[in-house]
Amino acid sequence: MNGESVKRMTWLSLGVCTAALMAAPALAQAGATAETAGASILEEIIVTANRRVESVNRVAASVAALDQAALDKQGIRNFTDIVAQTPGLSFAPPSTFQPANIAIRGVRSTVGGATTGIYIDDTPIQARNTGPQNAGDALPTIFDLDRVEVLRGPQGTLFGSGSQGGSVRFISPTPDLNDVKAYARAEITSTDSGGIGYEGGVATGTPIIEDRLAVRLSASYRHEAGYVDRINERTGAMVDKDANSSSAHTMKAAALFAPNDVWRITPSVNFQETRAKDSSQFYARLSDRSDQKLISGRTLAQPSKDRFYLPALKLEAYLDGMTATSVTSNFTRRQSVILDYSNLDEGVARLYNTNRVGGPLPGIGVLPLPILLPEAFVAAGGAENVVGNRQDNFTQEIRLQSDGDGPFSWLVGGFFQRAKQVNTIAVNDAYYADEFETLLGFRNVNGITRYFRDYHGEDEQLAAFANADYQLGDLKLSGGIRAASMKFSYEEELNGSFTRGRQFTTGKQKESPITPKVSLTWNASDDAMVYASAAKGFRTGGANIPITPTPPCLAALSQLGMSSAPQTYDSDTVWNYEVGSKISLFDRAMQVNASAYHIDWSNIQSGVTLSGCPGAFTTNLGSANSDGFDLAISAKPTDALFLSLSAGYNRSRFAETVTSNNIILAQKDALVSDSPPWQIAGTVEYSLPLDDGDGYIRGIHQYASRAGGLFAKYDTPTSSGYDVNGRRNQGYHLTNLRVGWRNEDFDLSIFVDNLFNSAPQLNYISNAFPTDTTYYANTLRPRTIGVTLTARH
After folding, report:
1. Where are the alpha helices (DSSP H) in 115-241?
2. Scanning 25, 278, 303, 685, which has the fewest C-beta atoms within 10 Å of its C-beta?
3. Tell me: the pLDDT tens digits for 379-391?
């Protein structure tokens, strides 16, 4: 850490520790105060963030947890809703050349391995970025979940590679051996300037043999209304109203078999399929966000389909003083999408024709690119990119851990995963097929496929890990370590006029990382704790796909002083230094959790774009620092009133300037990403007795700030990938309101999401060519009104 970072961490640490010290003596008087005020006790959420069952308020780490009740109360239906309620967690939706991206505490990268771990129960499902049309991570739909846990900070010891910034865990309910349980939800919605959405789902569990055998089954279907219209830009005619509608259906089945008091056997299977009729991106120049007119002028629709299966088998043996656990799973995913390449192909054709030796060909325009595509090109159907992604992960983990309340506890385990990914791309352009063959001097595949890719990659990981805790009075010292052997390899076939005929390449990388973690916790009382920790996170390296040696690509490499891309890139690491406190006040009617952190990110895997070339490569670009804090306050002053506030701040900047032939690849003090530095979410709920239940009103307000400071991509003309027309994400406020009635069995409510129709411009981006004048953007879903009925038994 540099001097300025040490100073910031010192003040933040003093603030956190002082708050805990001041609160601890007051706890003795809190009970009387709470009784006098009529306060109620806050419910605690039980988590397994440390692979042990414990209250979230006793975990010496920054953890945000939402149980099923909280997910329902806050109207959380998808991952974007989780992000809005979880400061420190950010999400960028997919675009034509970038997959969806998830980051925690500013540790974000659009290339290489994942920086955020995604878990369904005990199975990691995050994906490596295999190229521009990578599928990104599969994100479970929010239905029939016991809870969602967001673990901030590197989780390299217990969760391994891919958890540099943290992990998000989706935990399913376990079948109950004694009680029949049921859950159902139905919802109907209407979106401003959009369509009608609806949802229905049911989950039920029952014991088959009491104390010995139980099952749980669930199924759901959700249709999200569209709100982006696709038009014919030349005529203005409507092509598809509310084009970006989507749907998701899920099915889950699990059984719990306890043949005796020692063994518990839990087989399960998860299935999910999501479909989108079109992309949610709109043309910035055609749209009026203030009037909820979101327009796409694409020639082709961009439908997508994403399906996964996850069978798993969990074995638990409760031995004398210890528990042994084995989890075996196989994650299978198939994703497909059609991308509209019409604007891109028009720009590429004009670029190559402009630079053609001997002068331009007739029948193809030259630069600059016109706003409207040629009418004949549109009439011929434009150009499409047919993308397929496959992911097959076999995972085996075993753990042995101590039980009991003694001063010393321990956990040891082993982990194996073989993760295979396949990416296929076929860019089809019948209109310019002959011209591309003439311009580039090579044949297309099947006459019209100018670019074909068949990529197969494999990550293999074998790891051993251990963690130990020792309690000495009010102090607890914890330490853990993970040692892994990791291998990555790929093989790829390219073909078509854009690849200069058939090309076949291979690459591999091998590393043996060690990721330690240590923490010290002071339990000042039963209601107050302070902790300090240091943890290392790791992301394995990989191999680059060669850049096709076309004249524009060779010229772009030459600008960087290179003749080819590097064959491989190395691992990068983070060190997270953190202090925090968790304090219960007023006889547990109020909970205050706070943490402050500093992250050193070294040898960062970063993408380098090549101007005028449909290629890019990954390399290691220096280091970055990330500083910030997380704060969560919840209170129940009376039985009728609930208040909560979550806030997070993150400042992530490059720590050094890295250049290549005077082109800036990373710039000191520039932003690492365009994520909002401030994220704040507040909730107010008031309830009162009504008939045989309670009536309630709940308001939720969320704020995300605009990223200030230097952003090299938009502010530094000599930086790689500089975009003179680029724009940062706008900050925004979002307000949701819900009014309803509930009792022990039912909850009926009406709600308004995005009450004031906030419509910030987000993810403003063009295709990878400076010749493309079309910019695309996303925004929040417009005001949506709905009715929800939830039933529990």
Report:
1. none
2. 25
3. 999 999 999 999 9
